[in-house]
Amino acid sequence: MYKLKILLLLTAALSLASCKNRHKPVQPVKVDTTVVAPVNVSATDQILLNDLKKSVSQQDTFNKVEIKFNIDFRSESQSHSGSGTIRMIKDSLIWISISAFGIEAGRALMTPDSVKFIFKLKNKYFAGDYSYLRKFLPVDVDFNIVQNIFLDQFFIFPKNDLNLLNYFFPTLNGDVITITTRGRNEFQQRFGINNTVVYNLSTHKMTENTALFASNGKGLTISYSDFKDFTYHNLPSKVSFNGVGTNFTAVFTYQKVTFGKKMTVNFSIPNNYKPFEF
After folding, report:
1. Among residues 155, 151, 183, 158, which one has the least CA distance to residue 169?
2. 88 vs 152, 165, 197, 252, 267, CA distance in Å?
3. Is the pLDDT of residue 231 over 90?
4. Phi and psi (nearest 5°) for 178?
5. What is the pLDDT of residues 60-79, one digit of tens each?
6. Are 94 and 147 in contact (CB under 8 A)?
7. 203-209, long-range: CB within 8 Å, 24+ apart, which pairs?
8. 124-128/169-173 β-pairing
9. Measured distance between the N- and C-terminal CA atoms of the chain, rounded to whole angstroms
């Protein structure tokens, strides 16, 4: 459960107001970064995977975007509701503010090289990079994946590398393609997880992405629903994080999405704040 809370810190900054555990980080699964070895892909599967790659290449693009949202978090022991704002400059920065009862609880600033949080209710902060946060996770969660999560841009775990698609088994039902690494023992042995993605080829939208630990079947499902047109961009108005094997949900409901808007991203760590101990 703790690792999943840290993942929410990365993807949602949800734990700005509620994270209380101080356990030592677990030993992560070692990720093999060598070149992907060839795997046997049938001719039929290769056609489906090529269709997926073609559809992914036609996804919406953006430069600047601001998202106003409401958030609802629930677990066996606690529940929180609030609101917030996400501001993004493509491939450059992600700024997040979370509020509860009209009071800002915290902020986050992510760049490709750094991750920073301030916990205003506790006068604490975290400043580091993704390598530190990966101590809590057996998968490579980086700036690009966080950016893609909130805009429903296609991505796969553990690394957002389309070359890894040859490890996936695809199935097609109408316009919906489901790809999964279940049954690919070489993938499980190398990365320690299974990844399953549901994607609509006609709308160029992902509707579900699940990453599960191969060892115990626990993990996280991210679901996208209630698609709407926001400033001529088709996006989900609801993004849900659901624990698999752990009882929690975090639902982001988009109230307003604006593209190309001039924005400010104020972030500073007050001198009296102390480092947050994970």
Report:
1. 183
2. 14, 27, 24, 16, 14
3. no
4. -115, 125
5. 888 999 999 999 999 888 88
6. yes
7. 203/175, 203/227, 203/234, 204/55, 204/56, 204/58, 204/59, 204/60, 205/59, 205/152, 205/234, 205/236, 206/152, 206/153, 206/154, 206/155, 207/176, 209/155, 209/156, 209/157
8. unpaired
9. 14
